[in-house]
Every structure is written in structure tokens, then in C-alpha cells.
Design goal:
flat
Length: 70
């Protein structure tokens, strides 16, 4: 929201930086949780499932958003 209503480049840059920081922290935690939730032998598969879910969400969400907008 800040980036959408901001009127200066500095505010946009700060909002993008904070968003990137939060996104990086989320993915770091998501991968650790996936690794610890799975058996030791399946930890790499769990990280793969997390990554696959992220890619699938981009494809489905992007297509759905594009279709909903007209």
C-alpha cells in the first residue's frame, strides 16, 4: 500500500526494500520449517515441495488475476 500511494522515489525505494526483506525472511523460515517437519531422508523433497508451491502460486495467481481484471 505504501508503494502504491507514495509520491516520492525515496518512499517507493524504502517500501520495496522492506518488502524484499520480509519476503526473504519468509522463504528462509519456510524452508527451515519444511526441512524440520519432514523426515531426514525426505528433507530435500520437502524443500522442493515448498518451492514448487511457490511457483504454482505464481502461475495460478497471475493467470487468475489477469483473467479477473478483464
Amino acid at each position: 500500500m505504501i508503494a502504491a500511494v507514495g509520491d516520492s522515489f525515496g518512499l517507493l525505494l524504502a517500501a520495496r526494500f522492506l518488502t524484499a526483506l520480509a519476503t526473504g525472511a519468509f522463504w528462509a523460515v519456510a524452508n527451515v520449517v519444511a526441512t524440520r517437519a519432514a523426515d531426514p531422508a525426505a528433507s530435500s523433497r520437502a524443500v522442493g515441495v515448498v518451492g514448487s508451491g511457490a511457483m504454482l502460486a505464481n502461475v495460478v495467481g497471475g493467470g487468475g488475476g489477469g483473467g479477473a481484471s478483464g
